[in-house]
Amino acid sequence: MCPACALKEALEIGKDRKSETQPRRSEAAGTGRRFGDYELMDQLGRGGMGVVYRAYQPGLKRVVALKMILDTKQDFAHAARRFQIEAEAAARLLHPNIVRLYEFGFEEEQPFFTMEWIEGESLSRRIARDFAVSGSANHADFAQRIIRAVELVMTLARAVQYAHERGVIHRDIKPGNILVDGKGQPHLTDFGLAKLAKESSNALSDTGSVAGTPAYMAPEQARGERLSPAADIYSLGGRLFKQLTGKPPFSAPTPLETLRLITDQDPPNLAKVSRGRIDADLATICRKCLEKQPASRYGSAQEFADDLARWLKREPIRARPIGRVARVHRWTRRNPVSRSGTTF
After folding, report:
1. So what's the architecture of 28-116 in CATH?
2. Do 44 and 63 form a contact (C-beta atoms < 8 A)?
3. Distance CA 72, CA 100 (A)
4. Helix, coil or strand: residue 221
5. 28-116 with 121-333: one CATH topology?
6. DSSP-assigned states of every residue in 155-207
7. What is d(CA 234, CA 249) in angstroms, rounded to the nearest whole number?
8. Residues 150, 136: Cα–Cα separation, whole Å
9. 90-125: buried (b, 16+ CB within 10 Å) or exposed (e) per residue?
10. How many angstroms separate the CA atoms of 58 and 53, rounded?
11. 172, 232, 281, 306: which is the annotated catalytic residue?
């Protein structure tokens, strides 16, 4: 049975369970204990609604990542629905660079799902390590690191295109949600904020709410507007910027200040930030992803990946730099000023 069919069957079975309204237990207390068919090994992390364990499945002799809902008594129905959407999104996707869903089910009236275990590290950790030694890197080492970064983002963009073609918008592409295996291959994970294209009326995805990681949000996401695949393309550009410079394009002391920068300010020029170590073509590619208007970005994640491939082959890229007149025009549109000089 395919993952999507198995998930659908599990959801139908679970509809009559009490866990739809209130969990009997929220999470496994500690590690080194059994949870259904799994042996919990250690806790990997937790967020506002879920906790993830590394677990062992003796029957299939494999290690998996097991996720379950935390005890969120104030709004368990919302947490359960978001948990279901995450599992549904993952079940649609079978791609070598997207972490695979194995099982969705209930244990002790507790909904859970298991996913492929990736032996490696998060991209956040890899970037931190790379830039911890960047001061001693010579020109050749720096150039090779840039090439590896572009190759990784190109691979990731193709995986995102695959998801978009199947109606899944990730909405939270950040270094912490990308795992890098021992061969240097990226794997996109954590679809907890995913939006399913055919469920645009779902209240969890309606306009007016802001969800995601501020530093990598598209301007329309920061404003709480309805999102399209262009939001993921923006986040991919932010990812590329972070991997090339060690920091996101926008960052401020508070999330609110960061969101204001994203909606109001132009991103820094990569060529200038790197003091000329990153060439103008790559800076132009990154800048196109970070355009304020979704229609001004690449038309698809595949187009973005294709331009990165051209850059790697030293072929002419499709993106074009923004001229001075266009920059002034865009600035005045975001900052309307009356004749008296008063900003409206």
Report:
1. 2-Layer Sandwich (3.30)
2. no
3. 26
4. helix
5. no
6. HHHHHHHHHHHTTEE-S---GGGEEEETTS-EEE---TT-EEGGGTT-GGG-T
7. 11
8. 21
9. bbbbebebbbbbbbbbbbeebbbbbbbbbebebbee
10. 15
11. 172
* Sequential pLDDT tens for the chain (344 residues): 555 554 555 445 444 443 443 444 444 445 578 999 999 999 998 876 789 999 999 999 999 999 998 765 667 777 788 888 899 999 999 999 999 999 999 887 788 999 999 999 999 999 998 887 655 567 788 889 999 999 999 999 999 999 999 999 999 999 999 999 999 999 999 998 898 866 644 444 445 556 678 999 999 999 999 999 999 999 999 999 999 999 999 999 999 999 999 999 999 988 888 888 899 999 999 999 999 999 999 999 999 999 999 999 999 999 998 655 455 445 455 555 544 444 33
The domain locations on the chain are 28-116, 121-333
Which CATH superfamily includes the segment(s) 121-333?
Answer: Transferase(Phosphotransferase) domain 1 (1.10.510.10)
d(CA 89, CA 91): 5
Active site residue 172: yes
Which among 88, 112, 91, 86 is positioned nearest to 101, based on CA atoms? Answer: 91
- CA 85/CA 80 separation, integer angstroms: 9
- Token pair 């999470």 in the structure block, residue: 27
